[in-house]
Amino acid sequence: MDSLGQRDTIRISLLYSSTGAYAALGREAIDGAMAAIAEVNSDPALPFRFEPVIADPGGSAERYAALAEEAIMRNQCRHVVGTITSWSRKEVLPIVERSGALLWYAFPHEGYEASDHALYLGACPNQHLIPLLDYVFPRFGGRPFVVGSNYIWGWEIGRIARELTDAAGGTVLSERYVPLGSVEVEHLIEEIRARKPDFVLSNLVGSSAAAFLKAYAALGRADSEFLPARRPVVSCNATETDLQDLGDAAEGHITTSIYFDRLDTPENHAFKARLADRFGARKLSSPFVSAHMAVSILANAVAEAGTDDPKAIRQLVTARRYDTPLGPLSIDPKTHHAALRSHLGRSNQAGEFEVIDSSPSPIMADPYLVHAQMQVSLAEPASSERHLPAAKSLKVIQ
């Protein structure tokens, strides 16, 4: 719409898989987006309402492009909030670029991408993998075993981890991949037991991640050398959603994220209280919060711009700072990536992450790793006093 009248309806596409290998993550994201839409539509001060157009690709990357095109061309959606995997994102990008729409992508990703038709609200490697390895290397050692789902996210995070490990003076003992959604992980466990890495970097997604954590917990019960306190599983993409129904297999793993339910900040406390008053108390996750944040920022921008024109919205949101559950958030006008704080959490049996460290300020995204660098060298003595600073070469929002 070029200009808004009183309570105009704006259709937005919600493109998440609510069935398939990573369905739980998709359902969380849809819940978060729908909660934000409900808030927007109940606000009498806004001259518009959002109408969600929900499509379920079923975890099949090949279906994303067709569903995105249908949402844009048939249902007249100019904004697509969605996709989880990098595979699905890359299927959708040509569609939004060709049609002049805008993709709101709010999941961690491997970087090495920027588009004038996408806003990246999830962390890239200098905001997740580098802080994770900076924390893990001095505490556990520099001999990781890398496992991942067999697609872009797994491959690229494995590649970057290998380069960072080599640069720090460590050695990646092995890289192994399984098909997206596969639960056949025993061969990984057997090799890990034989090679005894210092830790396991898991780039697995959805049901594959759950199966691996269960199998690794069984290994730890059989051999105390593989208890998480000794050799943890670490990741850049685990969420509270991934820990559901794991029991003791959920305990002791380390992950980095831009959001945890137990994040002790004024912004998170206020957000959780507001949601609880309106929708009832629930445990939140980064997929829920990130999708909610995307819809909320879009609504703020449409209200200010007086239009949902993607070009106008993109120019506006990259020139503003928004209050979010993560704290103040800004998006770089050159890369279209958000500046984000990195948090480290350790999981417990209750399916929660206890926050164990945080960067002091939002880290400017460096999606092509032009300036980013590790803070630790494995030639240095290990220290238990290391924290998560923004890397010295990275810009930090003051």
Automatic annotation (TrEMBL):
Cited Pfam families: Peripla_BP_5
Signal peptide: none
SUPFAM superfamilies: Periplasmic binding protein-like I
Domain of life where this protein originates: Bacteria
Protein name per Swiss-Prot or TrEMBL: Branched-chain amino acid transport system substrate-binding protein
